[in-house]
Specification:
Number of strands: 7
Radius of gyration: 24 Å
Bound molecules: zinc ion
Structural class: mainly alpha
CATH class of one domain: Mainly Alpha
CATH topology of one domain: Butyryl-CoA Dehydrogenase, subunit A, domain 3
Strand order of the largest sheet: 4-6-5
Shape: globular
Helix content: 55-70%
Largest sheet: 3 strands, mixed
Oligomer: single chain
């Protein structure tokens, strides 16, 4: 679920950042058109029937595992534990293959009826299997510390594929309720919290906005905020405000329920703050996250400086919120898909021939879907159907320079997922704050090559501008949203339910603290909080982007400092997947997230990028 949500958010915000405007460049490109996915190896070339067979196997193996072990975990010896965890891993793998296959068929063609049916079947199987296997997690966490550690020590490297995962599960131990209470909460969650979240999402998904007399989906109106034409952006923002008012009381009521239930849950479990459970899941601490948020909060001068410069470049007195995603240049040279392939593969090869070969294989083996066609998923993403499958990348390659960056981003994820396959199903994915490190690092690497080969200062400035927009969005706006969320959770806990007006006020106050007088906050912006899925689905999620970006830049700076020796350490860090904590992973490339200067180092790099932009702009 987290991966799907991660994609949802990425799609929304990256879509805005890169301004997917409806007017395609319409360049003919045979290489791009030939780049389509071959998903069949995931299901052993047996199509729908193969996927359904995987689900059946997963179901019957889960049933058997439950029959054999439920209620008996405390008595297991080392060998039995190793084989039980192995079986658990295999079951998760079967599920991921089938559900990933169905989901990706849907991305490739939303009108494919088989894709919809497979996703439904996979969701049902997932819910059933989660219920069957819930005993394992509850009983494992209930073991006393000495017993659990003795089992893990006894298993030694036989449990390398799961030891970190098993230890991480136990980190929640101090906050667990009784076994029976946990079971009831888990089994009723669909009728409680998830029901409110679904109501909210269904309401949000139906929203439309009126553009030029036509009613269009809200996502399309949001994408118009990336239009080069200012009047179009202003019109879109006004239309978004009108459209977002529909169904608002329902979304406000649902969000209040979510805030309320989280307050009760945190109190019963004894979490010290509203963000503590998120931090624990992210394998970090309240103190570390507070230090990062404070470091970012102390550098609001950076987005403010960028806003002033961008206003000058766009030739307006002061930016409005609808200008934030505006691209700098109107005229762009189309970049053929073949050229992008060449650029990305050779940039990676120059860092490491091994990484370059992996990246090139994505192009050669049908792992990239780049064509533009009807019924295809908008935006860009990287998906994987279990650790036994290669990762796949999707984008709508429109021959613009930003598509090169988008592909570099997704291939960064792709390289990471490919290298981490050996960690198997339970540990192939790193924890969320580390998710964007590989993608951001890849963007930084490609940007360096693009900057070096830019034709002139205007092209360089357009490149810098796109990167600065992206950085301000992900590092600063992400944290401003978390601080708005903090205010909302606090208010709900101290004063009860919030009105729509109170929610909007907390949100806009947080944005005006960020921007001060450098941005005119339009009326339409006030309701945007009610369109961000993560505030309801995954409270506090958004700081992960700041964490990932700042860490990636520090890693890139380290690469420039260390040179050739860096590459193998970096690839080893990616290959470790989720088998270590973020802190341990980052240490593998010589960085220390607990160093008080760590976050400032990343912010200083951003400062450097901004200074470059200011210097180039001064010469134009
Ligand atoms: Zn990403």
């Amino acid at each position: 679920m987290l991966t799907a949500l991660h994609r949802l958010y990425a799609e929304l915000l990256r879509g805005l950042a890169f301004g997917r405007v409806a007017d395609h460049l319409d360049v003919s490109d045979l290489d791009r058109d030939a780049a389509v996915w071959n998903l069949e190896p995931i299901v052993d070339n047996q199509g729908e029937a193969g996927a359904l067979r995987l689900l059946d196997q997963a179901r019957s193996r889960a049933e058997a595992l439950r029959a054999e072990l439920a209620g008996r975990l405390a008595q297991l010896e080392v060998d039995a534990l190793v084989s039980a965890v192995g079986e658990l891993t295999e079951i998760r793998e079967l599920l991921s293959r089938a559900s990933g296959y169905g989901r990706m068929r849907g991305y490739a063609d939303s009108a494919d009826p088989t894709a919809g049916a497979l996703q439904g079947a996979a969701e049902a199987a997932q819910a059933e299997i989660d219920a069957q296997l819930m005993f394992f997690e509850l009983e494992w966490v209930a073991l006393d510390e000495a017993r659990a550690e003795a089992l893990l020590a006894g298993a030694g490297d036989q449990l390398d594929f799961a030891a970190h995962h098993l230890r991480h599960l136990r980190a929640r131990r101090p906050y667990l309720l009784s076994h029976e209470q946990e079971r009831i909460l888990a089994e009723t969650s669909v009728q409680r919290l998830s029901a409110w979240k679904r109501l909210y999402s269904e309401n949000a998904a139906r929203l439309t906005a009126e553009i030029d007399g036509d009613s269009v989906p809200m996502t399309q109106a949001l994408s118009l905020l990336g239009s080069p034409a200012r009047d179009q952006r202003l019109q879109a923002m006004a239309a978004i405000a009108d459209g977002a008012a529909a169904g608002l009381p329902t979304r406000v009521a649902a969000y209040n329920q979510v805030l309320g239930e989280k307050g009760v849950d945190d109190r019963l479990r004894g979490y010290p703050t509203w963000l503590s459970s998120r931090n624990l899941a992210n394998e970090t601490t309240d103190a570390a996250v507070e230090a990062m948020l404070a470091a970012i909060g102390a550098r609001y001068d950076l987005p403010q400086r960028w806003n002033r410069l961008k206003a000058r470049l766009l030739d307006v007195e002061r930016l409005a919120t609808s200008d934030l995603r505006a691209p700098l240049s109107r005229v762009e040279r189309p970049v053929p898909f073949r050229e992008t392939r060449q650029l990305i593969a050779s940039a990676w090869s120059s860092l490491s021939p091994r990484a370059g070969a992996i990246i090139d294989a994505f192009f050669a083996q049908g792992l990239i879907d780049a064509a533009i066609r009807a019924n295809k998923q908008a935006g860009a993403l990287c998906a994987q159907a279990g650790a036994s499958s290669h990762p796949y990348v999707l984008l709508n390659y429109d021959s613009r320079p930003r598509d090169t960056m988008s592909l570099a981003h997704e291939l960064g994820h792709g390289l990471h997922f490919e290298l981490a396959r050996a960690q198997r199903a339970l540990q192939c994915r790193t924890s969320i704050p580390m998710m964007e490190v590989a993608s951001t690092f890849s963007e930084a690497l490609i940007a360096q090559h693009l900057m070096a080969s830019a034709a002139d200062d205007r092209e360089r400035l357009a490149l810098l501008s796109a990167r600065l927009d992206d950085a301000m969005l992900n590092v600063f706006e992400g944290c401003a949203l978390v601080s708005a969320e903090a205010g909302m959770h606090r208010h709900r806990r101290e004063h009860g339910e919030l009105s729509a007006e109170e929610l909007s006020e907390i949100w806009t106050t947080s944005l005006s603290n960020l921007w001060e007088d450098t941005i005119e906050i339009e009326e339409g912006t006030r309701l945007l909080w009610s369109l961000i899925p993560h505030m309801i689905w995954e409270p506090g999620y958004l700081y992960s982007y700041s964490y990932g970006l700042l860490t990636a830049w520090s890693a890139f700076a380290r690469y420039k400092q260390v040179g050739d020796g860096f590459a193998e350490d970096y690839l080893a860090m990616l290959a470790a997947g989720g088998s270590r904590s973020p802190e341990e992973l980052v240490a593998m490339v010589g960085l220390d997230v607990n160093d008080p200067g760590f976050w400032n180092a990343g912010l200083d790099l951003l400062d450097g990028m901004l200074k470059d932009a200011e210097a180039v702009a001064a010469t134009l």
